[in-house]
Design brief:
The complex is a heterodimer.
Chain A: H1 2-24, E1 40-43, H2 54-68, E2 76-79, H3 86-98, E3 103-106, H4 112-121, E4 126-130, E5 140-145, H5 147-164, E6 169-174, H6 181-197, E7 202-207, H7 214-226, E8 231-235, H8 240-247, E9 251-253, E10 271-273, H9 275-287, H10 290-297, E11 300-303, E12 310-312, H11 323-336, E13 345-349, E14 355-359, E15 362-363, E16 369-371, E17 394-396
Helix pairs in contact in A: 2-9, 3-4, 5-6, 5-11, 7-8, 9-10
Chain B: H1 2-30, H2 38-56, H3 59-83, H4 88-110, H5 119-125, E1 128-129, H6 139-143, E2 145-146, H7 148-166, H8 168-178, H9 180-185, H10 190-215, H11 230-240, H12 245-271, H13 273-276, H14 284-305
Helix pairs in contact in B: 1-7, 1-10, 1-11, 1-12, 2-3, 2-4, 2-10, 2-11, 3-4, 3-10, 7-8, 7-12, 11-12, 11-14, 12-14
Classes of the chains: A alpha/beta, B mainly alpha.
Chain lengths: 402, 325
């Protein structure tokens, strides 16, 4: 009899516990930020412990933005070393959602499809993707910047230096050339800046064929210097092109970080991103809810010099006299919104900061007219990936006639 | 013409680390061990050699520690494969994974205190002009004005050739690589010779790694290793060189030629559009694949020729079990 009572009690206990379990996993959709603690998830292509490069730039920017908003570091969850493969990105997103993240940041272009799909799977989590082009109306946007505006300014520094050293050849080590609008626009803007300061300047481009390869970056820069280039610019991660310039006693413009430390006697100024500008705004608006985020940040966030998302690093002592004045004058013009780089108005700027505007066709290096004289800037050709040409004055070696 | 001289100089400077890796691997393989850890061993030699050398501000110390650190990696390989009879392929790959991990671990641990190439180390790395010969126009710039590692690498290759093919110790080493049981029966201490050759071979690879690190001005950037796949090319080059250090010298420059061609082909195309304009239409990726295509061709040709004595050491890659005799 006792046994039966015991069995009965056990059965009741089991049923009751099952009921509790089922009650726990109700299938009703969770709302945005259900626990009230706003958490950020980040997916990195390299390690969060890097001390330079792309991941480092984003990681420090996110941390800076969070510090500015007085958010504790434990509000940030990270999955790093995530390759650009859908499976890996899906797993990273699942992990971050599981940890209760409300805003998920993906920093690499190749995360695009996985993020797009997962945004549909988790409608109550916000997704934001760097350098991409996909988005939806409710919880997925992308962000990028008019880095070409900053490159134009760096080009002015290079052009003035080329005047000073009386060498019109400027070298440029680029990850890719016309295969990506990002690299093509960088080369074009830099060349236009250089030509604005020195009308005889020619920009010689060498293609790396990958986003990072230190050995090749150095040997390409050395080849450019040996061909006679006096200023070396770059669109690649490492400081090797600047170190090559330093060794050969020529000059250079870096990218991503101020490379004056690596090349103290060569570096002029670097084109840099201020990603924290975006992150701070994105986190703040996301904390105000999903609609607020999508409304304030937009589906395609595309900012530039004006918003402070891009810029040039402090000018070094190696810059030619008047570089500060020339750059300041042109930045003012860009900030005012009355002129932009890829337009039918050509600038020429001197060391006194005097700007002369002339209407002229913007032509590619094969002579095709891109923008007619006086025409409006084809600013959107960068995000729409239609900039697949190099402009007049650029001498590239590969796939130039593609 | 000047462009051409620069091109050849670049072929030599960027090719030379390959020679160290190749010669080190030749010694190892001649003693019957296939060490796939070249990439990792070079990385360890490079970072330890560079860090200790720049701290001590001496090229000699840098070279010594590059050699010793890499030799230690060789010792690990030898203990695992010779004494413990672990699979050589797996052990080699493990050494590569470990070596690269070690490289990044140490590099990131040093962090912002990192010093770029400078001081005595930089002076010792500068190009050395060989008297008289370096004065010959063009030829001097191409061949007789290089950094210390270029000359040292060629000397090491010649010394290793003499060791392997002209000395008794070399004969014993080759005997072990062909048939360890017979060598053992002839009274050769198989394990001792295997240990020594693996360790010295690894040490030579480490010097190549250091040459690579110095070429990069010792700038650690954390996303890319200084060695950059050269270790793998070196393994292919061993086959190309038919296990002969002298052919390896030539092979190094053939491989270096294609490596540099991807850098200079654009320069040739723009400077001489009529003669070399066609170079611009070849994609970069093709040059990257070329060394391996050539190696595959060499393998095919040598297997068609069916020599009586194959170039490849017969017992290479097989562990020697004394009890199985």
């Amino acid at each position: 009899m006792k046994k039966r009572i015991l069995v009965a009690i056990l059965v009741v206990a089991m049923v009751a516990s099952l009921a509790v379990v089922f009650a726990g996993c109700d299938n009703a959709p969770k709302t945005f930020n259900p626990d009230g603690v706003f958490k950020i998830g980040a997916i990195y292509i390299n390690s969060q412990n890097d001390n330079s490069g792309y991941t480092y730039a984003h990681h420090t920017a996110i941390k800076k933005a969070m510090a500015n908003l007085y958010l504790d570091e434990d509000r940030l969850a990270i999955v790093d070393n995530v390759p650009e493969e859908d499976d890996a990105v899906n797993a990273a997103i699942d992990t971050l959602v599981g940890q209760g993240c409300d805003l998920i940041i993906g920093i690499s272009f190749g995360y695009i499809n996985a993020m797009n799909n997962k945004a549909k799977e988790y409608p109550n989590v916000l997704f934001t993707h760097a350098t991409g082009y996909m988005s939806n109306d409710t919880n997925f946007n992308n962000y990028f910047g008019r880095i070409y505006q900053a490159r134009y300014l760096a080009g002015i520094a290079a052009g003035l230096k080329s005047l000073e050293i009386k060498n019109n050849k400027i070298g440029y080590v680029s990850a890719y050339t016309t295969a990506y609008a990002e690299t093509a626009s960088g080369i074009n803007a830099f060349a236009m800046g250089a030509i604005a300061a020195n009308p005889d300047a020619k920009v010689y481009v060498k293609k790396l064929g990958s986003w990072g390869n230190e050995t090749m970056e150095k040997s390409l820069a050395e080849a450019l210097i040996q061909e006679g280039c006096g200023v070396i610019s770059q669109h690649c991660d490492s400081a090797q092109p600047q170190i090559a310039a330093q060794n050969a006693e020529v000059f250079g413009c870096g990218y991503n970080s101020d490379m004056t430390a690596q090349a103290p006697d060569a570096h002029l100024t670097a084109t840099v991103w201020h990603w924290d500008v975006y992150y701070q705004k994105a986190i703040l608006t996301a904390m105000g809810g999903m609609e607020n985020f999508m409304e304030k940040m937009g589906k395609d966030y595309y900012a530039g010099l004006k918003e402070g998302l891009v810029g040039v690093s402090p000018l070094s002592k190696n810059c030619a006299a008047g570089t500060d004045k020339a750059i300041e004058a042109v930045s003012k013009l860009i900030l005012s919104g009355e002129w932009d780089v890829f337009s039918g108005v050509k600038l020429s700027v001197d060391a006194q900061g005097k700007i002369t505007k002339t209407n002229a066709d913007l032509k590619d290096c094969n002579g095709n007219v891109i923008v007619e004289a006086g025409g409006k800037s084809v600013d959107d050709s960068v995000i729409k990936s239609t900039m697949n040409y190099l402009i007049e004055g650029v001498i590239g070696d590969y796939d130039i006639k593609e | 013409m000047e462009l051409f001289a620069m091109f050849i100089a670049s072929v030599i400077v960027y090719g030379i680390p390959l020679l160290y890796g190749t010669v080190g691997e030749i010694i190892t393989e001649k003693s019957g061990s296939l060490n796939l850890g070249v990439e990792g061993i070079m990385a360890v030699g490079a970072i330890i050699g560079y860090l200790v050398g720049s701290k001590a501000d001496s090229m000699f110390v840098a070279m010594l520690f590059a050699f010793l650190a890499a030799a230690f990696m060789g010792l690990i390989f030898a203990v695992l494969t010779v004494t413990l009879k672990a699979n050589q392929n797996v052990t080699g790959l493990t050494i590569t994974t470990f070596g690269l991990g070690f490289y990044f671990f140490i590099g990131k641990a040093v962090g912002s205190d990192w010093k770029l190439l400078g001081g005595n180390l930089k002076e010792a790395y500068a190009n050395i002009d060989i008297p008289l010969l370096s004065k010959i126009p063009y030829v001097g710039d191409m061949f007789f004005s290089h950094n210390i590692f270029v000359y040292l690498g060629i000397i090491i290759a010649i010394v290793v050739f003499i060791y392997l093919f002209k000395t008794k110790a070399g004969l014993k080493t080759r005997a072990i690589g062909e048939n360890p049981a017979a060598a053992d029966a002839a009274g050769i201490n198989v394990n001792l010779y295997k240990y020594l050759n693996i360790i010295i071979g690894a040490g030579i690879m480490g010097l190549g790694g250091l040459a690579m690190g110095l070429k990069m001005d010792g700038s650690f950037e954390g996303s890319n290793c200084w060695i950059n796949g050269y270790g793998w090319i070196a393994i292919a080059l061993v086959i190309f060189a038919k296990w002969n250090p002298l052919i390896a010298i030539a092979g190094t420059f053939v491989f270096g030629f294609f490596n540099s061609l991807q850098v200079y082909s654009g320069s040739f195309a723009t400077s001489y559009p009529n003669a070399f304009g066609w170079l611009a239409s070849i994609p970069t990726e093709f040059y990257k694949a070329l060394p391996f295509i050539i190696t595959a061709l060499v393998l095919i040709i040598s297997s068609i020729r069916k020599k009586k004595v194959p170039d490849e050491p017969t017992a290479m890659g097989l562990n020697y079990y004394r009890e199985d005799r």
